[in-house]
Amino acid sequence: MRYTLRGVKYSMDFGCYDKDSGEVECYLEIPNPEAVGCVERFATFLSFLLVIITFPFSLFECFKVVQEFERAVIFRLGRVRKGGARGPGLFFVLPCVDTYRKVDLRTVSFDVPPQEVLTRDSVTVAVDAVVYYRIKEPLNAVVRVADYSASTRLLAATTLRNVLGMRDLAQLLSDREAISHMMQANLDEATDPWGVEVERVEIKDVRLPVQLQRAMAAEAEADREARAKIIAAEGEIKASKALKEASLVMIDNPMALQLRYLQSLNTISAEKNSTIIFPFPMDFLRTFLGGAGPSMSPSLPI
User: Fold this and answer.
1) What residue stretches are annotated with the Band domain (predicted)?
2) Tens digits of per-residue pLDDT, 287-299?
3) Relative to the CA of 299, which of 71, 136, 214, 276 has its CA 20 to 30 Å away?
């Protein structure tokens, strides 16, 4: 038995061999599903006749307008009309046989509800995000999916959980931009057959458990205290080195130590008005008391 395709589209013939009468060819024609039937043509004719009879009042129902940011997908007796989506501007529909659906091409944003996500290091966090998308193929958005908006919202929530489940808590807190780009690529690939283009995805907030927040705060505080002690120790080392250099300078000139005493006394008296007991060395006055004679005791109190 042999089978061949010939003739009109969806037309098929097959043949079989008979010993007595030879080869007999039979033809089987399958109707084209895209062809318009007699009933559809008759309904279209009646619709045109109704428009003519009710003219000019029928013009209010036959002419429709779509805005610059809209497109209209027209169905005639359930079939999509040739030429794709109409608009922007004026287009014609037949009453009773034509229906149309408008699609908005502007960018739409929606919030992804907070999702309880278990990260790769077994930490439960609540994350919410915002998604921006627009329709790039109005025909696919109407024909291939029942509700592109609801489908995109559900897919965004699922994608958010899947992407965050592959990351650690530290990566989630530090690499938000990379996670947003990865989520946008996954969403755009999944919604492309629906005629939807995901333009941007942003993670809004990451909510941690209260106990984890306290633990992270205690860890950060301990880290800051450790750094403060290290800085204070380094400051003491630098100060001791500076004092050592100052002492070497004062050894060469003893009067420098006396001047330092007076400077310290001036600083203390300027800050607080109180009684100050300050040791005053006799060596400071030896220059002035040198003319009193060598019998003066160096231990004379002042």
Assistant:
1) 61-220
2) 566 544 444 444 4
3) 276
Mean pLDDT over residues 152-166, rounded?
89
Q: How far is CA 98 from CA 47, 73, 76, 85, 168, in A?
A: 9, 10, 4, 14, 54
User: If we measure between CA atoms, which residue out of 13, 9, 12 comes closest to residue 25?
Assistant: 13
- Pull the structure tokens for residue 107: 């960018």
Report which residue type is found at 220: A
User: Position 177: which residue type?
Assistant: E
Where do the structural domains in the chain lie, given as residue ranges? 2-104, 108-212
Got the DSSP string for 9-58? Answer: TTEEEEEEEETTTEEEEEEEE---TTS--HHHHHHHHHHHHHHHHTTTTT
Q: How many CB atoms lie within 10 A of CB 248?
A: 9
Q: What is the mean pLDDT of the segment spanning 53-81?
A: 85
Token code pair at residue 4: 């061949």
Do residues 138 and 85 lie in contact, with contact meaning Cβ atoms separated by under 8 Å?
Answer: yes
**What is the DSSP secondary structure assignment for residue 157, as one 8-state letter?**
H
